[in-house]
Sequence to fold (300 residues):
Amino acid sequence: GQKMSKSYGNTIALREDAASVEKKIKTMPTDPARIRKTDVGDPARCPVWQLHAVYSSDETKAWAEKGCKSAGIGCLECKQPVIDAILKEQQPMMERAQTYLDDPSLLRAIIADGCDKARKSAQETMRDVRDWVQTHASKIKAGGRVLDYACGSGRHAVWLAKQGFQVMAIDRDLASLQQIKSNHPELAIQTEAIDLETDTWSLSHLGPFDAVIVTNYLYRPFLQKLPNLLNSQGVLIYETFAIGNEAFGKPSNPDFLLKPNELLGFASNMRILAYEDLTVTQPKPACVQRVCAVPLQSNP
Fold:
């Protein structure tokens, strides 16, 4: 039979009026062997039988099958239980919809409330996403492949995925990665549990990427290897704590704090687009360094 399509005019809308539903079902093609009512048919060859399989009880299906194969009922008789069942299914939807048709302001209020909730949620997400990442994400190729390195809870992975990027999030914490997937099943975020502090660099199989994002993380043995994960037009966006942060709390261990101008070390094989070494007040007071850099061979 013909597929269901609006362009063919053979679909049934959720709130389609009863007369239209009845007309569409009654004019459905049936077993081509049943030219006259006295001709026997085979439900397996009849498209209407597929609707019986969905809507009819076993008793009704047995009646329709027997009547078709024996020519005891006509096709219009066979279709009537399907028509009745569809109309019955539609009735509660029609009644619920009528409330909003009678008072459209109710629907507008629901939409406004949803927009308000979405706005608040977006504001909360933006507060969690580092300003440095937001500012320089525009330099990443649209729809590009992005690596959230040592992603933690995945706040940047989620935000980047919502901006249309293809995101891979890696971290040693498998539970956090699973949480990202379960909390955001609508986002196609790839995850991989990897120990990022092993003796040997083992990430070459992941790249290349259009961008690598690193925030609040430092492991010096692999710091200068991060550009290896980028393609020739990729972008490195990095921000983490620096010496002086011990005055504000953790991290205070020098092993986890950047030395003065340490991120400028990327200048040996990258072009520095932006660099800052400063004290920030949001989301909490901290000393940070941050850099945005691209490979030397990238286009200006």
Notes: Residues 122-127 have pLDDT under 50 and may be disordered. The longest strand covers residues 230-241. Residues 75-102 form the longest helix (28 residues).
